[in-house]
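seq as requested:
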Amino acid sequence: MENEELVVGGSIGIARYPHNGKTAEDLIKNADIAMYRAKADGKNTHKVFTPKMLKSVTHRANIERELRRSLADLQQFELWFQPLVCLKTGRIMGAESLVRWRHPVLGVVPPADFIPIAEETAMILPLGQWLIERLCFQIQQWMPYFAHDFHVSINISSKQLYRQNLVEMFAFYMEKYHVPPRTIRMEITESLLLQDEDEAERTLKEIRASGIEVWLDDFGTGYSSLSYLRRFTVDGIKIDQSFVRDIITDSKDQQLVQAMVAMANNLDLLVVAEGIETEDQANTLAQIGCEIGQGYYFDKPMPVDDFVKKLINESESNVIEFKL
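struct tokens:
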């Protein structure tokens, strides 16, 4: 075409009569659903319609509809908190904030059901702004009672990074609630940086210049982990739970985690290990030199009131210990 060679691919959806519909309208609709599944599975393939696909599409449409309605009542959303624990002392050093949606009819909707939809439809922008404000408000409430080094992290999506002025947004709410930047850590994933490395580098420099720390989440699972550490200046890394899960039984995982921790220490970066579920995992990570742990062994994400009660109980009993 005009002296240019074009390579054309195709995603095919198949619906069969009478199994997948007895009218032309139903067959075309179901074939269309199967085609979009083929695209979602990597394109240039084919999929045959199944009733499960229709159930999935219907569920997604319902979630998207209710999510749009919820933007008029953002109080349906809550920040829950999962403790970040010092692996040597057992002291709670901070928390990761995680959004939960408490729908008046559906109940608590799992994040996996609505976060991807919020990101695809850009509803993550107003929701994300509201969550940043709630985070600053919550930190303000906690500051008189927590240690100087206590901090809370928040996850940032790609649309927030590239379509919102996060520097101004954080600055506005930190000033509004009198929150010092040292109490906030911003977590980003490696895949987020892939979209526009130049823009990401500029924004992250401005974020760090404002005093907010930037951490690289799910470290080790992307394609360019080491090159990102060379190009982007971050304050810490979070080792993905896939490396922690078999750290006791798989020597390769243990050696990989040990190498990550040693590298981070040499680069003067802090390290958080995610997905800790057993005492043995916690002890092994502490022996390797990992400073901070997070996972169900310590606690699941919990509503703010439960998190405060845990902190109060910990300060009174101080019974969390590890065998090192």
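The chain has two domains: 12-64, 73-317.
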